[in-house]
Amino acid sequence: MVLPLARRALLAGRRRLPRPASAPRAPAAAARLCSGAGGEAEAAGGDGAMLRHLTRKLRASGPVTVAEYMREALTNPGQGYYTHRGGVGESGDFITSPEISQVFGELIGIWYISEWIAMGKPPAFQLVELGPGRGTLTEDILRVFKQLTSVLSTCDVSVHLVEVSPKLSEIQAVMLTGGKAQPSPEDESAYMKGISKTGIPIFWHRDIQDVPPGYSFYLAHEFFDALPIHKFQRTEKGWREVLVDIDPEVPGQLRFVLSPSRTPATQNFIQPEETRDHVEVCPEAGVIVQRLASRIEKDGGAALVADYGHDGTKTDTFRGFQNHKLHDVLSAPGTADLTADVDFSYLRKMAQGKTATLGPIKQREFLKNMGIDLRLQVLLQNSGDTATREQLLHSYDMLMNPEKMGDCFNFFALLPHHRLVHPDKKDKPESKSPLPPVAGFNELLLK
Ligand code: SAH
What we know:
Layout: H1 2-11, H2 49-61, E1 64-65, H3 66-75, H4 81-85, H5 97-100, H6 102-118, E2 124-130, H7 136-147, H8 149-152, E3 156-162, H9 166-177, E4 182-183, E5 192-195, E6 201-205, E7 216-221, E8 230-235, E9 238-246, E10 254-258, H10 264-269, E11 278-281, H11 283-299, E12 301-310, E13 319-322, E14 325-327, E15 337-339, E16 342-343, H12 344-350, E17 356-362, H13 363-369, H14 372-382, H15 386-400, E18 409-415, H16 417-420
Helix pairs in contact: 1-6, 6-7, 11-12, 14-15
């Protein structure tokens, strides 16, 4: 059922607009590659407003957790990196898969339609993207929805973007609505709304809790890695939390210190059976996954999470990026992107069995299963000039090469239990036809 549709979308000749076919794309070094893969760290300037703010705060109340430091540096309403600088894209500090290739978002669009059909074509769904960056991924997904209008014609689709950055939400509004979005009245759950260029209503929210209840497909691409982490170090005296403090030796410089005793976080977040000596935990990611799982359990839908990460094995992955280079995490806060690998084992645990989980599966396997090779062939056949063809091959290599983004980026999904196991299978196993496999996590048979 879904396969001919997927095939139709993969074979569509259209390339995304308004970018010209020959637009320069990001060089390989530009992606936020896996931990430690980016070369020497660079320090950089900025006007120092965030550093002054943090220094005042540290003087007044002492060292802060890494989570508090990261929250201030990234999303402080005045000088935070995302709030103020934006950062995503070729002209920013790091490049992401949807910015590298249109194919990435197209395949994700097909994934949602595939799940919508597999779940019995509910009459309405919300596409909810967490941390949409420049809005490129949603734009590519909406283009696929438009191509498959005849399939979705009976379905009432709306888009909900969860974004804290005023700067990025403006960029998203230009990308998705041609700049025609309007601020909403204060009492509404959305702070801005508009209509996509393809005619779909779009709403902007600051928090997932503001998104109205209802059948929803959630998307989090390079979102969880931007959320604040706590860091812990095992010592002879037991677990200690890593904190950020002023360096007394060097004026205007910050340094890491260890908490003199246990902190509430060491007590709450370190498992007794932990074997690593250094651990990073992102409680905010845990809370968001709990919310997603509760909403999917109650209202239906699915969540697709794509990010670099590990399954509870890595230790020190906290790093900064500026101008596409590694950047000292404590230098010039507010001017660089700060990020840490996502711990998928923690996300799975935080779903608390309310939903089933799939993955993490490597990006190159997921995209291959989704038909990236066929899509590449179609785009190559339809492109007349050598520069475009080279660009298509280059971006394919960026996404798929195990040394680049193919192995360190992962896909992970939350799905209702009944999507994977018939509710009454135990009673009458023979009476049910098999459930359709979940695309991406299984090979998609296109013929
Ligand atoms: N998904 C995009 C952008 C990734 S960058 C892409 O792959 O290209 C991280 C995004 O998350 C930015 O849009 C940033 O503003 C947003 N963000 C960071 N912290 C957030 C938070 N606490 N709540 C909502 N959005 C957040």
